[in-house]
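User: My collaborator sent over this chain with a note saying "see what the structure looks like." That's all I know about it. Can you take a look?
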Amino acid sequence: MNLTLTIRVALRAIAKNKTRAGLTVLGIVIGVGAVILLVSISQSAGLMVQEQFRTLGTNMLFIIPGSQEGGGVHLSSGTITTLIAADAEAMMAECPSVMAASPIINARAQIVSGNLNWSPDQIFGVNELYPAIGNWKIKNGEFFTAKEIHAAAKVCAIGKTVVDNLFPGGDCVGATIRIKNIPFRVIGVLEAKGGNLFGQDQDNLVLAPYTTIMKRLSGNTYNNVDAIFASARAADRMQEACDDVTALLRQRHRIRHNNLNDFTVHNSSEISKVLNIITMVMTMLLGSVASVSLVVGGVGIMNIMLVSVTERTREIGIRLAVGARARDILWQFLVEAMVLSLLGGIIGVLAGIGSAAAATYAVNILLSGGTRWPFTISITAIVVSLVFSASVGMFFGYYPALKASRLDPIESLRYE
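Assistant: Without extra context I'll predict from the sequence alone. Here is the result:
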């Protein structure tokens, strides 16, 4: 018996009992559909997290001051002041892998506008390159320039949350706000970003020239900065940029060869790698959990095939009597089990894609709060699910097929 004829016989046998065949493949349909759905959800979540991460900045380097040790206690990074604004300027001038760098000075204060007041999460003193580093765009107005930084001008750009709370009408460019009773003119409004990976509102901030924050708000007379944010020229030059910055700062800070750095350099690629690992582990975990239902579906196929062998005992006896070999009977029932599982796999793939699309639509409409949940389907998950479903059919269909091939022709013909 050739393979084509075997498949035709298997399809005819399945067609004779449509209801039973449908119930048999139901377990495979649910299993494959669950794998596709859960893998799609986990990968969509990973893509959304990566997209949120990209809003933080482009190829970013985070340079923070070092730590100090006192009384045998080693304190955390940032407990001493070792960075100055000139370090950021030197990075752009002497590190070919660094595209831009900005000093960062933090301040905390209440903002007043007319009879309204608001306390932003962040008041940052930065330079004119910070929008390019932090991936900020200006919605209205403009950002301050190098000239205004040099003059320590009392100007600022504010985020959407600050606008909503201090200027309900939305028209704020040119208006004056007071920070620690010092007037600042609003010259720009930042485009909204929403919440970050940690749930913090990124739009609840004020950006001003770091020279202004240093002289007017923090009272710093030593030119020290809290951190430096820099951007590498390309993603594949992140490590080169880290090495260049480290070498430059060691030279500028006169650190001897055997001494530890008085600063710490982090880069966004490290965080991105961790996020990718978390997404991969989550995808594998959810896929493994869903694949259990495929095994349950395989058990259902085996049970139904055993019943089918019992019902078709006389048919098997006739085939053996007219010259069919045992391996022909084996392949007949084995192919039948594989056809059932593959049919269930195909229907399951379609059901999984439809469920993933429906879930994405529901999340975007009901739960996302304006953040777009991406729709993605893993081709690898589809291929693996189909191969696994066929393997399940072969594995669980082998015993019933073997049992059918070993039936005695005479006893089978006598079976009622």
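A starting point for your reply to your collaborator: The first helix runs from residue 3 to 16.
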